[in-house]
Specification:
Strand order of the largest sheet: 1-3-2-4-5
Number of helices: 4
CATH topology: Glutaredoxin
Radius of gyration: 12 Å
Shape: globular
Order of helices and strands: EHEHEHEEH
Distance between the termini: 18 Å
Number of strands: 5
CATH class: Alpha Beta
Largest sheet: 5 strands, mixed
Number of domains: 1
Low-confidence stretches: none
Amino acid sequence: MEKVITSTNYQDILSAPGLVVIDFWATWCGPCRILSPTVDELAVEYEGRATVAKCNVDDCEEVAAQFGVRNIPTLVFVKNGTVVDRTVGVLPKRDIAAKIEQYL
């Protein structure tokens, strides 16, 4: 299950060992709503191997700014505290899973 990033817990989530995938999204964003079920499925499939988290850019503007998120949906891949990759827009599940596998 994915975690929800807030302005108070994001450092704890980012300090998780291994890979953290952050989905930056907003409720008003159509493409975000399309991508959301895929992210939910991947969170379940990779539970215990990767941390999947969602960050609502309207609720956590400072976190989005810290990661340089200018367009949504954006997925940011963080490994051991370092950003290693990012995607922007809606991607097929297999493409996102391939990126996760690449960094595990």
